[in-house]
Design brief:
mainly alpha, Hypothetical protein af1432, 196 residues
Length: 196
Protein backbone atom coordinates (compact mmCIF):
# COMPACT_ATOMS: atom_id res chain seq x y z
CA UNK A 1 0.00 0.00 0.00
CA UNK A 2 1.31 3.43 -1.00
CA UNK A 3 1.69 6.27 1.48
CA UNK A 4 -0.69 9.25 1.06
CA UNK A 5 2.25 11.42 -0.01
CA UNK A 6 3.25 8.90 -2.70
CA UNK A 7 -0.37 8.61 -3.90
CA UNK A 8 -0.52 12.42 -4.22
CA UNK A 9 2.75 12.43 -6.17
CA UNK A 10 1.34 9.85 -8.61
CA UNK A 11 -1.85 11.92 -9.04
CA UNK A 12 0.17 15.12 -9.59
CA UNK A 13 2.37 13.40 -12.19
CA UNK A 14 -0.70 12.06 -14.00
CA UNK A 15 -2.33 15.50 -14.05
CA UNK A 16 0.86 17.13 -15.35
CA UNK A 17 1.12 14.52 -18.09
CA UNK A 18 -2.52 15.04 -19.10
CA UNK A 19 -2.04 18.80 -19.01
CA UNK A 20 0.97 18.51 -21.31
CA UNK A 21 -1.10 16.43 -23.76
CA UNK A 22 -3.88 19.04 -23.72
CA UNK A 23 -1.36 21.85 -24.33
CA UNK A 24 0.15 19.94 -27.27
CA UNK A 25 -3.31 19.34 -28.75
CA UNK A 26 -4.19 23.04 -28.47
CA UNK A 27 -0.91 24.04 -30.10
CA UNK A 28 0.82 25.68 -27.17
CA UNK A 29 4.61 25.57 -27.27
CA UNK A 30 4.84 25.96 -23.49
CA UNK A 31 3.14 24.53 -20.40
CA UNK A 32 -0.10 26.57 -20.64
CA UNK A 33 -2.01 24.63 -17.97
CA UNK A 34 0.91 24.82 -15.55
CA UNK A 35 1.31 28.57 -16.11
CA UNK A 36 -2.40 29.09 -15.43
CA UNK A 37 -2.06 27.02 -12.24
CA UNK A 38 0.87 29.19 -11.11
CA UNK A 39 -0.86 32.49 -11.91
CA UNK A 40 -4.11 31.32 -10.30
CA UNK A 41 -2.28 30.14 -7.18
CA UNK A 42 -0.55 33.51 -6.76
CA UNK A 43 -3.94 35.25 -7.02
CA UNK A 44 -5.56 32.67 -4.71
CA UNK A 45 -2.91 33.32 -2.06
CA UNK A 46 -3.73 37.05 -2.14
CA UNK A 47 -7.40 36.16 -1.58
CA UNK A 48 -6.30 33.91 1.31
CA UNK A 49 -7.87 30.80 -0.20
CA UNK A 50 -7.22 27.68 1.86
CA UNK A 51 -4.55 25.19 0.79
CA UNK A 52 -7.33 22.77 -0.17
CA UNK A 53 -9.15 25.32 -2.33
CA UNK A 54 -5.90 26.35 -4.02
CA UNK A 55 -5.08 22.70 -4.73
CA UNK A 56 -8.52 22.14 -6.31
CA UNK A 57 -8.05 25.30 -8.40
CA UNK A 58 -4.59 24.17 -9.55
CA UNK A 59 -5.93 20.77 -10.61
CA UNK A 60 -8.72 22.48 -12.56
CA UNK A 61 -6.19 24.84 -14.16
CA UNK A 62 -4.09 21.93 -15.39
CA UNK A 63 -7.10 20.22 -17.00
CA UNK A 64 -9.36 23.19 -17.83
CA UNK A 65 -9.42 22.41 -21.59
CA UNK A 66 -9.49 18.61 -21.39
CA UNK A 67 -12.89 18.76 -23.11
CA UNK A 68 -11.26 20.28 -26.24
CA UNK A 69 -8.86 17.35 -26.43
CA UNK A 70 -11.72 14.87 -25.99
CA UNK A 71 -13.76 16.59 -28.72
CA UNK A 72 -10.69 16.39 -31.00
CA UNK A 73 -11.92 18.94 -33.54
CA UNK A 74 -9.65 19.76 -36.48
CA UNK A 75 -10.66 23.42 -36.50
CA UNK A 76 -8.62 23.92 -33.30
CA UNK A 77 -5.45 23.67 -35.42
CA UNK A 78 -6.54 25.85 -38.33
CA UNK A 79 -5.21 29.39 -38.65
CA UNK A 80 -8.50 31.14 -39.34
CA UNK A 81 -11.44 32.61 -37.48
CA UNK A 82 -13.92 29.96 -36.36
CA UNK A 83 -17.26 29.72 -38.15
CA UNK A 84 -20.35 30.29 -36.02
CA UNK A 85 -21.21 26.60 -35.92
CA UNK A 86 -17.63 25.75 -34.86
CA UNK A 87 -17.65 28.40 -32.15
CA UNK A 88 -20.93 27.03 -30.79
CA UNK A 89 -19.52 23.51 -30.94
CA UNK A 90 -16.38 24.60 -29.08
CA UNK A 91 -18.52 26.11 -26.32
CA UNK A 92 -19.46 22.54 -25.37
CA UNK A 93 -15.92 21.80 -24.17
CA UNK A 94 -16.37 22.91 -20.52
CA UNK A 95 -19.30 20.51 -20.04
CA UNK A 96 -17.38 17.69 -21.70
CA UNK A 97 -14.39 18.62 -19.54
CA UNK A 98 -16.56 18.40 -16.44
CA UNK A 99 -17.55 14.88 -17.48
CA UNK A 100 -13.93 13.95 -18.25
CA UNK A 101 -12.70 15.10 -14.84
CA UNK A 102 -15.52 13.10 -13.20
CA UNK A 103 -14.38 9.99 -15.08
CA UNK A 104 -10.85 10.62 -13.78
CA UNK A 105 -12.24 10.56 -10.23
CA UNK A 106 -11.37 14.18 -9.49
CA UNK A 107 -13.37 16.08 -6.89
CA UNK A 108 -16.67 17.80 -7.65
CA UNK A 109 -14.89 21.09 -7.02
CA UNK A 110 -12.42 20.41 -9.85
CA UNK A 111 -15.27 19.31 -12.12
CA UNK A 112 -17.25 22.51 -11.56
CA UNK A 113 -14.26 24.80 -11.99
CA UNK A 114 -13.54 23.13 -15.33
CA UNK A 115 -17.21 23.62 -16.25
CA UNK A 116 -17.25 27.30 -15.26
CA UNK A 117 -13.85 28.60 -16.43
CA UNK A 118 -15.50 30.45 -19.37
CA UNK A 119 -18.22 32.19 -17.33
CA UNK A 120 -18.15 35.99 -17.52
CA UNK A 121 -18.72 38.48 -14.73
CA UNK A 122 -21.61 40.07 -16.69
CA UNK A 123 -23.33 36.73 -17.41
CA UNK A 124 -22.35 36.57 -21.11
CA UNK A 125 -20.10 33.52 -20.68
CA UNK A 126 -20.84 29.83 -21.07
CA UNK A 127 -22.09 27.16 -20.49
CA UNK A 128 -24.44 28.34 -17.72
CA UNK A 129 -24.46 32.17 -18.11
CA UNK A 130 -23.61 32.61 -14.43
CA UNK A 131 -22.85 36.17 -13.40
CA UNK A 132 -21.01 38.05 -10.71
CA UNK A 133 -20.62 36.19 -7.46
CA UNK A 134 -22.75 33.28 -8.71
CA UNK A 135 -19.44 32.24 -10.27
CA UNK A 136 -17.16 30.72 -7.60
CA UNK A 137 -14.11 32.87 -6.84
CA UNK A 138 -11.74 30.14 -8.05
CA UNK A 139 -13.50 30.04 -11.45
CA UNK A 140 -13.24 33.84 -11.69
CA UNK A 141 -9.54 33.57 -10.92
CA UNK A 142 -9.11 30.88 -13.61
CA UNK A 143 -10.87 33.16 -16.14
CA UNK A 144 -8.27 35.88 -15.54
CA UNK A 145 -5.27 33.51 -15.47
CA UNK A 146 -6.38 31.60 -18.59
CA UNK A 147 -7.13 34.77 -20.54
CA UNK A 148 -3.81 36.39 -19.71
CA UNK A 149 -1.71 33.36 -20.58
CA UNK A 150 -3.72 32.54 -23.73
CA UNK A 151 -3.49 36.05 -25.13
CA UNK A 152 0.24 36.42 -24.46
CA UNK A 153 1.15 33.17 -26.28
CA UNK A 154 1.11 32.19 -29.95
CA UNK A 155 -1.82 30.00 -30.94
CA UNK A 156 -2.61 28.28 -34.25
CA UNK A 157 -5.34 30.87 -35.00
CA UNK A 158 -3.47 33.99 -33.88
CA UNK A 159 -0.16 35.46 -32.81
CA UNK A 160 0.57 36.48 -29.24
CA UNK A 161 -0.32 40.00 -28.17
CA UNK A 162 2.22 42.01 -26.22
CA UNK A 163 1.85 42.02 -22.45
CA UNK A 164 0.99 45.72 -22.12
CA UNK A 165 -1.80 45.35 -24.67
CA UNK A 166 -3.21 42.33 -22.82
CA UNK A 167 -3.07 44.11 -19.46
CA UNK A 168 -4.94 47.05 -21.00
CA UNK A 169 -7.55 44.64 -22.43
CA UNK A 170 -8.04 43.11 -19.00
CA UNK A 171 -8.57 46.56 -17.45
CA UNK A 172 -11.09 47.48 -20.16
CA UNK A 173 -13.00 44.21 -19.80
CA UNK A 174 -12.98 44.33 -16.00
CA UNK A 175 -16.61 44.12 -14.74
CA UNK A 176 -17.62 42.75 -18.17
CA UNK A 177 -15.68 39.53 -18.73
CA UNK A 178 -13.59 39.60 -15.56
CA UNK A 179 -14.26 40.04 -11.86
CA UNK A 180 -12.88 43.56 -11.24
CA UNK A 181 -11.32 42.63 -7.88
CA UNK A 182 -9.54 39.62 -9.39
CA UNK A 183 -8.18 41.87 -12.15
CA UNK A 184 -6.94 44.38 -9.55
CA UNK A 185 -5.19 41.65 -7.59
CA UNK A 186 -3.69 40.15 -10.76
CA UNK A 187 -2.41 43.56 -11.89
CA UNK A 188 -0.90 44.18 -8.46
CA UNK A 189 0.98 40.87 -8.70
CA UNK A 190 2.04 41.44 -12.29
CA UNK A 191 3.04 45.07 -12.00
CA UNK A 192 3.82 45.37 -8.30
CA UNK A 193 1.13 48.03 -7.83
CA UNK A 194 -0.84 48.17 -4.60
CA UNK A 195 -4.50 47.10 -4.60
CA UNK A 196 -6.86 49.77 -3.21
Amino acid sequence: MQSPAREQTVIDEKLLELSSQIDAFEGYSHAHGLRIAEIADAIGMRFKLSDHDRSVMQQAALLHDIGEKTMNRGYIHESRVLRTVERLDLQRHPVIGEQDTAKLGLSRGVQLLVRWHHEWWNGAGYPDALEGEQIPLAARILRVADSFDSMTQDRPRRKARNTDEVLQYMKEWSAIEFDPMVVKVFLSIHTGETVN
